[in-house]
């Protein structure tokens, strides 16, 4: 049983339904939103969920961010970092400084030529244009609905009550509604309809079209959803036309008739970060790492320009006569926060490549950045310890993670994170009962965190209490199906059923029935391990 890689633990990733950004997570697997997987020969730290790195609102105009995170009870190590960066992103900073970007020399020359040419008289070759389009025709199907009809019959479809792209307003508000209720496939379908209005629908790849901040935010939303749904081929094909967002038509200056003398990038910083990360999804993590370091170099230059009082997009030391001292300080804070987001993405990518030494080095550098609170420093310290657990170096991990040998009343931990750290340390040493006690204690502090219940159930499995583990899983689902019907939980439950009995199809079908009645269209039906 200890060799079963499907059984996973996760530090709290609860699902609520207030905001939407964490559903659009786009980074590769990360240390900041852990799942602990039991693997030979030691406990390994992995993730089936990703921390929010690109937290800009994909449905807003420009590059403003929105804390539209549905995990209102989220207790992962990334959430506090997100909150800190979001506060800076929401500051009343001039759009010119928020939208700043340094174009390549080739693009800069073209934009300069457009600025000095009479409106409507400039013409660019196709290689200097961004020409995206949809790679698939038609709507994505609702796989949960199809599976329910296949296994449970047409009558079960009566209980299927989820939104489709046609059930909401045909605009960004409808898109938000679909994402908020977990109907990501329907949201992808609606995004395709909205992009077709911009002449960027199916068959339009490599066809010239005009761009706006709104159209680019729609693309950011669509690509984020495709990443979340693991539609890798479509994601690759639809993201490639954007390159690194450096073609001239990605800048406001390209459209003087619409934006006058406004400068900066029409594409949000979040979109740039997402595109940098996407190659890792289709098996090219080295390309992602290279992309991230290029972003980092540009952001470092922008920060240096702001600190020197220069124009943020300047590559030639041009003074910015407009920027006030307060704007200068706010701009430095904003771009320093964005720098930290890139570094977190580097950590995630390094872990995906099993380059744990690089991950630790970057985390240590992050710790040295100014303005972190004590709690946030604790988050980074905890992450460093967990990377050491990746390496199987328990001794090194002990320097960073709290070890609570006994949970006496006088030895109370201060946070759920501290208890999870203690549980991970115990698991690394095969002390599963001690780990169970830690996760159980954490669950009393955060009863709504279903992933702590998941961790407890896995510990029960490893102490030979299979029946108790199954019972605990089922109790969590019955108490709150809307929150508990998450893919890692369902995969663990179905694996437990297979270990528990050879007659496991019926309980799996019961889970399918609950998915059909309580959840949107985003869940991967394969987590139920049902042969179609």
What does this protein look like?
This protein has 532 residues and is mainly alpha-helical. The chain contains 22 helices and three strands. It has a three-stranded antiparallel sheet with strand order 1-2-3. Helix 1 packs antiparallel against helix 12 and helix 12 runs antiparallel to helix 13. The N terminus is likely disordered.
Can you give me a brief rundown of this structure?
With 532 residues, this protein is mainly α.
Largest β sheet strand count, sense and barrel closure:
3 strands, antiparallel
CA(first)-CA(last) distance: 26 Å
Q: Helix and strand succession? A: EEEHHHHHHHHHHHHHHHHHHHHHH
Instruction: Briefly note the structural class of the backbone.
Output: mainly alpha
Number of beta-strand segments: 3
Rounded to the nearest angstrom, the radius of gyration is 24 Å
Global morphology: globular
Helical content, roughly? Answer: 40-55%
Strand order of the largest sheet: 1-2-3
Q: How would you name the oligomeric state of the polypeptide chains in this document? A: single chain
Q: How many H/I helical runs?
A: 22
**Rounded mean pLDDT score:** 80
Strand content: under 5%
**Residue runs with pLDDT of under 50 for 5 or more positions:** 1-80
């Amino acid at each position: 049983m200890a060799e079963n890689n499907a059984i996973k633990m996760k530090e709290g990733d609860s699902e609520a339904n207030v905001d939407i950004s964490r559903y659009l997570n786009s980074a590769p697997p990360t240390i900041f939103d852990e799942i602990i997987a039991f693997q030979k020969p030691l406990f390994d730290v992995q993730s089936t969920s990703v921390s929010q790195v690109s937290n800009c609102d994909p449905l807003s105009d420009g590059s403003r961010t929105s804390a539209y995170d549905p995990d209102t009870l989220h207790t992962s190590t990334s959430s506090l970092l997100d909150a800190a960066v979001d506060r800076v992103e929401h500051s009343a900073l001039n759009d010119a400084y928020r939208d700043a970007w340094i174009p390549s020399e080739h693009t800069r020359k073209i934009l300069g030529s457009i600025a000095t040419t009479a409106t409507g008289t400039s013409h660019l070759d196709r290689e200097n244009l961004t020409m995206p389009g949809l790679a698939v025709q038609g709507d994505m199907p609702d796989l949960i609905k199809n599976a329910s009809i296949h296994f449970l019959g047409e009558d079960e479809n009566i209980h299927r009550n989820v939104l489709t792209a046609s059930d909401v307003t045909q605009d960004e508000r409808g898109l938000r509604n679909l994402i908020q209720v977990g109907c990501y496939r329907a949201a992808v379908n609606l995004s395709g309809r909205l992009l077709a209005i911009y002449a960027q629908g199916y068959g339009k790849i490599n066809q010239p079209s005009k761009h706006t901040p709104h159209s680019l935010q729609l693309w950011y939303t669509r690509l984020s959803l495709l990443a979340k749904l693991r539609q890798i081929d479509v994601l690759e094909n639809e993201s490639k036309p954007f390159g690194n967002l450096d073609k001239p038509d990605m800048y406001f200056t390209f459209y003087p008739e619409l934006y006058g003398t406004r400068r900066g990038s029409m594409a949000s910083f979040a979109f740039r970060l997402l595109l940098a990360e996407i190659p890792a999804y289709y098996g090219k993590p080295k390309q992602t790492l290279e992309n991230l370091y290029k972003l980092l170099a540009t952001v470092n230059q922008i920060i240096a320009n702001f600190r020197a009082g220069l124009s943020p997009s300047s590559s030639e030391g041009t003074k910015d006569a407009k920027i006030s001292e307060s704007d200068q300080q706010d701009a430095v804070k904003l771009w320093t926060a964005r720098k930290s987001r890139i570094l977190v993405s580097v950590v995630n990518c390094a872990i995906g490549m099993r380059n744990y030494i690089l991950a630790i080095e970057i985390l240590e550098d992050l710790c040295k950045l100014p303005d972190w609170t004590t709690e946030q420093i604790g988050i980074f310290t905890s992450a460093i310890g967990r990377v050491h657990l990746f390496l199987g170096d328990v001794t090194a991990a002990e320097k960073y993670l709290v070890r609570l040998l006994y949970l006496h009343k006088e030895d109370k931990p201060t946070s759920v994170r501290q208890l999870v750290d203690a549980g991970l340390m115990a698991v690394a040493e095969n002390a599963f009962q001690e780990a169970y006690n830690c996760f159980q204690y954490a669950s009393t502090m955060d009863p709504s965190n279903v992933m702590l219940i998941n961790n407890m159930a896995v510990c029960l499995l490893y102490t030979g209490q299979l029946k108790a583990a199954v019972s605990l899983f089922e109790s969590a689902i019955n108490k709150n199906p809307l929150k508990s019907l998450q893919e890692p939980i369902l995969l663990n439950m179905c694996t437990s059923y297979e270990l528990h009995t050879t007659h496991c199809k019926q309980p799996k079908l019961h889970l399918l029935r609950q998915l059909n009645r309580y959840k949107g269209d985003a869940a991967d039906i394969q987590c139920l391990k049902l042969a179609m």
